[in-house]
Amino acid sequence: MSGRHEFVVRDSRSVYDGAILSLRVDDVEMPGGRVARREVVEHFGAVAVVARDEEGRIAMVRQYRHPIGRRLLELPAGLLDAGPGETPLVAAHRELAEETDLAADRWHVLVDVALSPGFTDEALRIYLAEDLHALEAAERHDEEADLTVEWLAVDDAVSRVLAGEIVNATAVAGVLAVALADDRRIPLRDVTAPWVDEPTALRERRSHR
Fold first, then answer.
1. pTM of the entire predicted model
2. Locate the Nudix hydrolase domain: which residues (predicted)?
3. Choosing from 29, 86, 130, 144, which is the catalytic residue?
4. In this predicted model, what pLDDT tens digit does every residue of 157-181 receive, in sequence order?
């Protein structure tokens, strides 16, 4: 019967260990007994923030992304790479402050995303942050030293997604999720809601070094 097979890992080995990801090769038992090789990119995971002000605008950052060679309009976001003591919510507070010089008093979970589960465990949690207030300007380095903050109405952001002007997967998910939640008045989850697919393999291995 389909849907009941247990995909047992018969062997697993790490073949590359980089700064922000690792490549693991697993030998996995398939239905019928065949063992297939699966390459898995392990990732720290990330958080992102839809920060909305009293006028209903959301804070977005325009940042250079070297793999595609241009600046993208994105949500404030960052890796869960600060060590085991930092929770996703604390990381979201940190990233919002570092990239936009903002803090928020009211937080909810907006949406969870598994970015490409066919080959990576990379996943992110996107928060909605409201009741914003300004912080002192943060010191920024590398690509972040060049970023700019832009405020967009939600409807404008949705239009830019559908026009192909906002293409970052995190931003697309966050913009469309907040628009739909507003339109349908869908209650959002508390920040303590379980994150089923939070990546942990890479962080756990690094913590044991």
1. 0.93
2. 41-174
3. 144
4. 999 999 999 999 999 999 999 999 9
